[in-house]
Amino acid sequence: QGGEKLLAVGTVVPEFSARAIDGTTVDRRGLRSPGAVALMAVDCPHCRTNLPEFIAHVRGAGYSSEQVLAVVGVGADSEDVAAGEMLDSLASVAIVVRETIPGGEVAKAFGARAYPCFYLVDADWTVTAGAHAVRRLPNTAARAAAATAARTVGR
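^ thats the sequence. predicted structure below, dont judge the formating
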């Protein structure tokens, strides 16, 4: 679970195109940024452990669902019920893509070699943070509150 399995900070995420679970086409141009990205796999225990933390993180940061991309990898032996639960949980906070493991286009764009992967990206889709555990991401809620406070003080 070392950092070598993540895109490095400063890397621009390559272009990708995928079908979201709502039937829309998803690519970098269609997602608002800055934002957050999660790549998880249904059969990954660490992914399931991080799922509620990721949801809390993006809500706490004030991201709209158009700023959050969640990719759920589903293997040939994955349980449909488990996949459905993960997809449904993420649909409340993100644009959700279901991909087959291995070989999904978004996972390839992010070079995913281990799950889960969590990223923060800036307006140009440059990675500003990456981690295999949500708790290792910067506290974006604190930064958002500080930015709001700074704007208020400056008035």
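Residues 40 and 116 are 5 Å apart (CA to CA).
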